[in-house]
User: What shape does this take?
Amino acid sequence: MPYKFFGPHLGLANARDELLSEWRPYKVRPSQNESPGRRLETGTLQHELLAGFVAAVEYIESVGWDAIRVHERMLGERFLAGLPDAYTLHGLSTMDGRVASFAFTHDSRSPARSQPHSATAASPSGTATTRPSR
Assistant: This one.
């Protein structure tokens, strides 16, 4: 699964028990000590994020990665076709070998000045895509 997807921002860790057992966690005394993984938890689990994660995985499974890739490519091609010549695209100039996330600049506009004149939308990969307004 890619790093970013339709789900909530949630950190997950996976490690061998013998490795986790060697680490001394920075924690308060009453927190659990029995399971090596539990010793490293920072407090109350964020159940709403875990529920969102499960729902996101189920959604991706129902739609399928192939359909998501096709849709993301179509959105990226649409963005690239509509980017005015006054903007300089940084990175690959086609959708071959890239995802639909873009970095671009304008010679006469600083990024701070461009912000009020742009719209931001989330791409299927879960990252922000900014397109200048016309």
Q: What stands out?
A: The first strand starts at residue 87 and ends at 90. The longest helix spans residues 65-82.
